[in-house]
Specification:
This protein folds into 2 domains: 21-47 and 203-233; 52-190, OB fold (Dihydrolipoamide Acetyltransferase, E2P) (Beta Barrel), CATH 2.40.50. A hairpin with a 5-residue loop joins β3 (80-85) and β4. α1 (7-46) runs antiparallel to α4. The chain has helices at residues 7-46, 60-63, 164-171, 205-229; strands spanning 50-51, 67-74, 80-85, 91-101, 106-115, 133-140, 158-159, 179-182. 33% of the residues lie in helices and 22% in strands. The protein is of the alpha/beta class.
Length: 233
């Protein structure tokens, strides 16, 4: 039986099929990329904490989510506030504070979350330890402003995304472009709440792979069903 393809359905189907297959293949690549990221995060996060190397030798991309420990003194007067929710969905702020290292240099520490009513230091004096402290937490890279994320409000000291370089500049300190996100070790007075790092990175790319390739299969079925109905076989 000779197949006689109709012009307009064919002209529509071929580019649409190419596009759907291309999208599915792109999502296959994205799936591999995201799976690699998740594997690296899980591997790094399970490692024992190591002393934070000198800032000049730290590669934030290689050490991201690696547990580290560092000793120094907080400069609470330079604290900045990053709008954030807890893992339970409560809205408040994460406290980013410069820590002057005992061996020299400064790093930015995300001490953890406080509710909006306790944002200002005056409302939680017990949360401001003086003198040397040791912080253990995960090393994190800064992140860029998303499409629908507002600009950081420096006048109100309210930050919407983790621009470590801009934070250090606003604090008036020389700190490398990464954060140490403190673990859940309790702080004096119960605040801030550490251990807020989210390790459950979403990975929906397999669903997208199935979706786009599924649309491609459906399109082919519809194409041949149309030709069969029109008697073109």
């Amino acid at each position: 039986m000779k197949f006689r393809p109709a012009l307009w359905p064919t002209l529509f189907t071929i580019p649409a099929l190419v596009m759907l297959i291309g999208l599915g293949t792109w999502q296959v690549d994205r799936l591999a990329w995201k799976s690699g990221i998740i594997a690296r995060i899980e591997t790094n996060a399970r490692l024992p904490a190591m002393p934070l190397p000198p800032a000049a030798s730290v590669d934030p991309a290689a050490l991201e989510y690696r547990p580290v420990s560092v000793t120094g003194t907080f400069r609470h007067d330079r604290e900045v506030h990053l709008l954030a929710t807890t893992q339970r969905g409560n809205t408040g702020y994460q406290l980013i504070v410069p820590l002057d290292r005992a061996e020299g240099g400064t790093v930015l520490v995300n001490r953890g979350w406080v509710p909006a009513a306790r944002k200002e230091r005056e409302t939680r004096p017990e949360s401001l330890p003086a003198g040397p402290v040791t912080v253990t937490g995960l090393l994190r890279k800064p992140w860029h402003q998303g499409w629908f994320v507002p600009d950081n409000d420096l006048k109100r000291n309210v930050w919407f995304y983790g621009d470590a370089t801009a934070m250090a500049k606003e604090m008036g300190v020389d700190a490398p472009p990464f954060f140490i996100e403190a673990d859940a070790t309790p702080n004096p007075g119960g605040l801030p709440l550490g251990g807020q790092t989210r390790l459950d990175v979403p990975n929906n790319h397999l669903t997208y792979v199935v979706t786009w390739y599924g649309f491609a299969v459906v399109l082919v079925v519809i194409y041949f069903a149309y030709h069969r109905r029109e008697g073109r076989f």
